[in-house]
Design goal:
Elements: E1 8-15, H1 21-31, H2 52-57, E2 64-70, E3 73-79, H3 87-93, E4 99-105, H4 112-123, E5 127-133, H5 142-153, E6 157-159, E7 161-164, E8 169-172, E9 180-181, E10 184-185, H6 186-198, H7 202-211, H8 218-231, E11 235-239, H9 248-257, E12 270-272, E13 279-281, E14 292-301, E15 305-314, E16 317-318, E17 322-325, E18 332-333, E19 337-341, E20 344-347, E21 350-351, E22 356-360, E23 370-372, E24 380-382, E25 392-398, H10 404-417, E26 422-426, E27 431-436, H11 439-453, E28 457-460, E29 467-469, E30 474-482, E31 489-499, E32 506-510, H12 522-535, E33 546-554, H13 562-577, E34 583-596, H14 600-608, E35 613-620, E36 623-631, H15 638-646, E37 651-661, H16 664-672
Parallel strand pairs: 1-3, 1-4, 4-5, 5-11, 6-11, 32-33
Antiparallel strand pairs: 2-3, 7-8, 9-10, 12-13, 12-24, 14-15, 14-23, 15-22, 16-21, 17-18, 17-23, 19-20, 19-22, 25-27, 25-28, 26-27, 29-34, 30-31, 31-33, 34-36, 34-37, 35-36
Amino acid sequence: MPYSTAQIRNVALAGHPGAGKTTLFEALLHAGGALQAAGSVERGTTVSDHDVVEKNRGHSLDSAIASTDHAGIHVNLIDTPGYPDFRGPTLSALAAVETVAIVVDADTGIGHGTRRMMEHAKARNLCRVLIINKIDHPGAKLGALLDNLRETFGPEVLPLNLPSEGGRQVVDCFWKTTGDSNLGPIADWHQKIIDQVVEVNETVMDHYLEQGESGLQREELHDAFEQCLREGHLVPVCFVSARSGAGVRELLDVAEKLFPHPGEGNAPPFVKGSGDSATPIEAKPDPDAHVIADVFKIVNDAFVGKLGIFRVYQGTVRKDTQLFVDDGRKPFKVAHLYKIKGKDHVEVDQTIPGDIAAVAKIDDLHFDAVLHDSHDEDQIHLAPLAFPRPMFGLAIEATRKGQEQKLATALHRLSEEDPCFHVEHETETNETVIRGLSDLHLRINLDRLKERHGVEVSSRPPRIAYRETIGVAAEGHHRHKKQTGGAGQFGEVALRIEPLPRGAGFEFVDAVKGGTIPGQYLPAVEKGVRQVLLGGAIAGYPIQDVRVTVFDGKHHAVDSKEVAFVAAGKKAFLDAIGKAHAQILEPIVHLEVSAPEAQVGDITGGLSSKRARINGTDTARGETVVKAQVPLSELEGYAAELKSVTAGKGRYRLDFSHYEPVPATMQQRLVDAYKPRHEED
């Protein structure tokens, strides 16, 4: 159907693994008429889980997009993975929607995924809705779960509808004032949610106090509801059974009547410029304005090629128009414009503000690229999402000779599709290293290399991302001089190094006076310094948190060349590091372990033996969460260890915290194992 911006609803389904997001995604598409029959995860027939690896695993590994029409609205749905190992695609979806619907399993209740997505959505200033799924399961304690949600997330959590007839259907409690449900009289919950909604707006509150609910206009109540959603003053709850269909059509009705359209949601966090000079700008859903769109997903399709999936925030993208990518000077032509339905693509003529679409075969496209049609919109970008840092690594190589280029291409495509999958080349060891959020995350991408790209690889145990730094300030000096007949090489550099605060990175300062080193050679000095930064000095790991100040040197009018100052800068830096109490840093991670209370003692004892600092515990629904900071190097094989200790009931998540120095014995071992290959003069 033709539709306007006011008729669009953009919704991401998120939450804990196994909550039924994909099944609900299928049920909503079916209820809206986009599917003749809902697909099945078990049979591998879903629209969203269309990848071979997903079908084999039986759960979502990537986000999927499809849309449906219902009662005059156009709903763009994004199904996201629940496992924390695949947070990249999940968090990317937050850049494209106004509403995040967090699905909760009626059987298992609040999980880590529930809490995590509530936090992410709140941080992104998105409207949040809780959807309790599987309400028709025998033994589901829906009243206790609703109470627990309110305890956990606050009194602003209130139902819009309630289960009835044992979960076979749901009844409205926002617009309706009478009737009964499995959770008690509708009037009780209706009163609670009306009280919550009206107090956000003084005018509405005054009308309510003077005239009662009957004195409120329907439009007035709707606007107050929207304001509550935007401000986080209300987190509505809806009940469904995705399998039976109970509450699914009612959920679409709620989306039509109460979910914000792109003109009503909180303004996206666009800024113009970078660093301290960056200023917020407002993208308005005006179809006649200049185009501003954000690429939130890249797909490398076997048939269509590279797809850039984007959300239009301003203006209208039309077929055959020209768009710029970021600050690029050369535009590309929109030869084909697509709406996405899982793995299928439907060609369209235009995309209006608020809608989601895709363009194909544009090499310059990348995740978070901004598309626009005027240089007035140069230097515009969305505030970056808070992706977790990939900490797990595997060194890989193609098992068959001659596939090195094919492997490199495949890895590049996988890293384009997942912001949390990184590919590095370790120059010192000449290794290709892939990094991800967990061992499972890496293994899935190895499966994709084989299934999608036809490349088999061998892998070695994870490399720990150690770093090097210095403990004190020091000075270094080196004179590079070679004379082999004819023109020689001469360059002399004196520099000073100082430690910077942890996480500050690297600074290069030119403090040369009197032209002792001509300005044209200073980039060469920095190049030599950066060679050491990359390859390390004492153990072969990158150096960080250091300031290098070049303050003196000498040159020769004939023999001085760039290569001489590269060598002099490199050796002077190494000389200074040798005097600066060099340290090896190890990554420390935040670890959260969830397990039955009975195993907490075994878990904390095991962590203590791994140099962990226990930061406390939380208890919820008979499960205890142990929070700790642990060196990443101590967690090799921890998944198997936890499974053994908890009989498979424990799970954990990691996030990068900071770097800190390794113990002296470990540093000595790492230094002894290092075989430097610094060139001789």
